[in-house]
Amino acid sequence: MKRLGIMKETKNRWERRVPMNPPSVKKLIDKGYQVTIQPSETRIYKNEAYLAAGAELAEDLSNCDLIIGVKEIPLEGIIPGKPHLFFSHTIKGQDYNMPLLQHILDTGSTLMDYEKIIDDQGRRLVFFGKFAGNAGMVDALWAAGQRYLQEYGIETPFLKVKQSYQYESLEQCLAELRKIGKEIEREGLPAEICPFNICLLGYGNVSIGCQEILEAFPIKEVSPEALAGLEISHESNRLYLSIFREEHLVERKDGGEFQLSDYFVNGKDYKSKMEQYLPYCTMYMSGIYWAPGYPVFLKNSELGKLQGEQQKLIMIGDITCDIEGSIEATRKVTMPDNPVFIYNPVTDSLTDGFKGAGFAVCAIDNLPCEFSREASDFFNSALQPFVPAMLDNDYSQPIAVSILPAEIQPAVIAHLGKLEDKYQYLQKYLNR
Q1: According to the 3-state scheme, what is the secondary structure of 318-384?
Q2: By Cβ atoms counted within 10 A, which residue in 59, 67, 222, 356 is the most buried?
Q3: Is the pLDDT confidence value at 314 over 80?
Q4: Are the C-beta atoms of residues 287 and 241 closer than 8 Å to each other?
Q5: 272: part of which helix (H) or strand (E)?
Q6: Domains of the chain
Q7: Above 90 in pLDDT, residue 12?
Q8: Please, are residues 315 and 362 in contact by the beta-carbon 8 Å criterion?
Q9: What are the pLDDT digits (tens) for 268-291?
């Protein structure tokens, strides 16, 4: 009888998500599987709920056939020779997780990553992205209100927005935001902050989550090319939203025609052209995929040109949280209890809080944990169908001849202590 082990989350005290909720655990047990849960006082579903579903509670998961979690499992939590599934944050060669990947190889273990569970068109199937967008947009609006007040002495309706984790649910959050939206529609925003332009980078799940929040407000969508015209003609009782796709963000260095497929393969041949839009941007929200070798969309040098008494850009919301990635100013991630820092490009310095010359950056890590229950249930529904086959698989055999579903096989980064062929490129990061 195969046994599933569910790790407790230990990355930080804000992480309350679960990969499987109690009803799904019960369904798995009803099919004849066993489930062991590491006890946790912080996860959104309590230990008692899993016990009622038929699971066992134990710290030791060494007798389990598959171990799953949400965020990175600490080195001491990796069980030698066992298959593990979690968000490893290794596929970009992230320096901070190369010791984890090396440990998995050294212990002869198998690593699978949710980020690479994909369909035949390469689309991700098991993700939290929409909820990152939800929480990231709410937190950025809240932070904008605080920045306007604390640095510029301007009171705005955004002062009534709370941080995401302070709402009981996403539903309650949206209900409260709609009230604020009605106030803006009725009374307008202060003239000195109009037009209020939100530049949203991306059109995938994160962007969808951002747009879901913004639907609570009187929003008018305009093309990036129309932003400059809003300085002449705009309404104070509207928020303006511009959605940026790759063709708005980059251009070929040689002046050739932009082609999306070519950009994805040859990102190094492109450069950012975002600087033309920045003077008209109030909030810069990054929800677009980025990897090393691709153009930096928001450079510190461009921020330096904008900084001054009349700067319009009030908030940088980095939902992607790539350290010194597409946004150079993101030099660290933040937590919900200390969510914002000011980056001053003139002094090249970071200061926690809302005061000081420069640009407010909100780069909260683990954003979906702020709506833990909804995010967990959504994630669980996507993962659940794959779990039985993953449990039944014989991991002593090569992945190519396994019974793992076609959607799961691309997610195997390392197997029995060796990188899979498509992930051999990670060896260069391990050797650095």
Answers
A1: ECCCCCCCCECCCCCCEECCECEEEEECCCCEEEECCCCCCEEEECECCHHHHHHHHHHHHHHHHHH
A2: 67
A3: yes
A4: no
A5: strand 270-272
A6: 3-125+372-430 (3.40.50.720), 129-365 (3.40.50.720)
A7: no
A8: yes
A9: 999 999 999 999 999 999 999 898
